[in-house]
Design brief:
152 residues; alpha+beta; Aminopeptidase; seven-stranded mixed β-sheet; globular
């Protein structure tokens, strides 16, 4: 089943919202972490976006924008495994970019993605350009850093 933008509810979440418990449970479910395992978010995401199939359902995806020390913003996204390959990740990233451009005045957004991944293809389709290649936390996995200028 294809989920189009009209079928998806994107919720802009206040950075001070008390919804972190829902986000933590979403991460645990996506990564198959025991629900009783303590998990802390790294914090600092200034803008969060939750994707739901309707206003009264649980999250199917998440994206965020976080300011780095150099003033640029890093985008991150995660889609629940049961809802992948339905363009939800691309919709979330596109929504975050539009939000940044229209509401915040963010000039540059970076994405750190695994080489050859769906995430890399999404970045390319949305106009990100390759900045560099580096090893991530797992040395065998190459990562690429992409950038996007939000000013046209």
């Amino acid at each position: 089943m294809y989920v189009g933008y009209a079928d998806l509810v994107i919720e802009n979440v206040s950075p001070n919202a008390s919804s972190d418990e829902e986000l933590i449970n979403f991460w645990k479910d996506c990564y198959k972490i025991d629900p009783d395992t303590p998990l802390l978010l790294d914090g600092g995401a200034e803008f969060k976006f939750y994707a739901r199939l309707s206003a009264d359902t649980g999250m199917v995806g998440y994206s965020s924008l976080k300011e780095r020390d150099d003033g640029k913003y890093m985008i991150a996204a995660l889609v629940h495994p049961e809802f992948r390959k339905r363009k939800i990740g691309e919709i979330l990233v596109s929504h975050a970019i539009d939000f940044a451009r229209k509401n915040v005045g963010i000039k540059e957004i970076d994405a750190h993605v695994e080489a050859g991944s769906i995430s890399e293809k999404i970045c390319q389709r949305l106009g990100f350009f390759l900045i560099g290649t580096e090893n991530g936390n797992v040395p065998a996995i190459k990562h690429r850093l992409y950038g996007l200028s939000t000013t046209y």
